[in-house]
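Researcher: Go.
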Amino acid sequence: MKTKGNEALSAGKFEEAIKFYDQAIHLNPVKEYYGNRSLAYSKLGKFTEALADAEQCVKLGPNWARGFQRKGFALHNLRRYQEAVEAYKKGLEYEPNNDQIKKGLSEVEDLAKWEETQKKAEEKKNEQMKDILRIFEGDPLGQCRLMPECKHLVDDVGFVKKVSEIKEDPKKLQTYLHDEGIRLFVTVAAQYQHLSKMTDKERAELFIKQEEERMRMEKLEEEERDRRRREEKKRKEEEERKKKEELERSLTPEQREALKVKDEATAFYKKKDFEKALELYKKAASLDPKNIVYLNNIAAVLLTQKKFDEVLEVSTKAVEIGRDNRAPFEHIGRALQRLGTAHLRKGEYSQAIEFYKKSQTEFRDPDTLKLLKEAEKAQEEKVKKEYINPQLSEKAKEEGNEAFKNKRFAEAVEKYSEAIKRNPDNHVLYTNRATAYTKLQAYTEALKDCDTCLALSPKFTKAHLKKGSIYHTTKQYQKALETYQQGLEIEPENEPLKEAIQQTLMTVSQGSSGGSNAEDVRKNIEKDPELQAILRDPMTQQVLNAIRNGQPFEHFLQDKKVEANIEKLIMAGVIGTGPKK
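Model: Structure:
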């Protein structure tokens, strides 16, 4: 029974092997039979059963290294890494030079360390929960008011209620941690607490350490995925080999000869001897005319030779023969893919798209999908190019101007969009549409058009003026000034740009003197990531605290970066410079 089980195991018939080992164990329950059955279970991915047999195996043979190898392998795949390490080490005590056990131990030791790291991370998480609870001690709402990122939460009745409940019953923290407001408050408060206790050097070292740990963990996880992929690949290759052997046993002499010739042809193809490869593929096709694999190979060579019309002829024939002889869907799909590629290379994109879609219907293939997207993109570009007409673009532009004059701004956007489609390289059209967008208060779209205009014509200062005016309108004064200044670097004597700068500075000055609306400032902060980053900076926080408490802060401004950040906050209206009324 053991011999029959071994033969079935070698042939990849694992279920059958297990039945033979069952009988062998029933007749004579020795360690070797349990070890063999454990291996068979592992081959089927039944690692719980494999472990049970391995346990019995080492119980019957406590000095048998292979039993511990089986046990280690099963534990490894059950992700009980530390136990697997112990099993492999036990096996090496009895066979110190066993390479397979050494390899298994090497693979699982890193994973055991990873598991230990995860355990420590969980412990650290519990400690962090305790730290979070400390945030709710004292006056959490007062603390929240001092942090720009979350001070608006104090006006939220629901948030205040939840904070109060957590203070009364700390267990409710776990319930409310999913709440967006609570999560934001906890995150920001923890960052301030932690960073405020650290020097610049310590913060830098912490960041480096976190990055190194993240990269190390990613490497470990990738190695484990690679191991599993290798095993899966090996298993599939073995299955393919057996299928091929079974297929060859059922082939006629001519079909066997065709396979042999095909292998020769492929060798020439790899050497880029395409004429010889083509000759041999044609010979293989004549030996086995119902097998469209050879016609697909011929089409591949012809594609390489750029003989696209011949590809169309051969691949059409391959599809017909394949359907008549019930060829595998994958083979028919490949022939349809070849048809699509021939049309693609000929610039016949709509036909290429049609055949790629048919190919995907036969057999889903990522390469075909990639080619389909390439064809669709090429077709789209072709349509765009064919649509270009500067004369019609000018006509649409005039219609847009007329609509704008009559305050039909949505229609103006539509006409300018048509003009852009007809002549996408005309940079002026984008500023025209940006102007119409601003009338509709579509500022994001307007800014995009200004950026596109400047990408096409970097020295077109009217685009700088328009872009700056949009920033001014949306109360992003620092960005407005920067944009106007960029325009002046191109045209230093540009009067509209100079006037725009003076107007923005006047507006900022009025806001800094007490006229800035707190709600407007808050909205500006919410939509400006740069301001948010500045406000999160620990040095900025120290300056703001000094200002609030009436303490001297000028010494902080000796740092040029801090000084620049404070100037941006003043421009944004976050910090006032005049007397409060």
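Model: The mean pLDDT is 86.
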